[in-house]
């Protein structure tokens, strides 16, 4: 009885590891091709500017 219980626990542990690895793989699959949302794109574009233009752009931001 103890041996069967131990085998079930071991199976559940491995099943959990496989599920977590699968979830991780699905999460990082094509991660680099995720698109920006509008506000993220604006922030990325703004960060490429000079400091004076960044200050000017954030001062005129409506958010």
Short description:
With 63 residues, the protein is mainly alpha-helical.
Overall structural domain count: 1
* Secondary structure category: mainly alpha
What is the end-to-end distance? 64 Å
Largest sheet: none
Query: What portion of residues belong to β-strands?
Result: under 5%
Helix percent band: over 70%
Please mark out the parts with pLDDT under 50 across 5 or more consecutive residues, or reply none. none
**Count of alpha/pi helices:** 3
Count all strands and give the number: 0
Note the overall shape.
rod-shaped
Mean pLDDT: 85
Q: Kindly provide the radius of gyration, computed on alpha-carbon positions and rounded to a whole number of angstroms.
A: 24 Å
Series of secondary-structure elements, N-terminal to C-terminal = HHH
Structure description:
The model has no long low-confidence stretch (mean pLDDT about 85). The chain has one domain (about 1-60). The protein is rod-shaped and about 70 Å long. It contains 3 helices and no strands. It is about 75% helix and about 0% strand. With about 60 residues, the protein is an all-alpha fold.
Secondary structure topology:
Elements: H1 2-28, H2 38-47, H3 51-59
Task: Considering the chains and any ligands shown, give keywords for the structure.
single chain, 63 residues, mainly alpha, 3 helices, rod-shaped
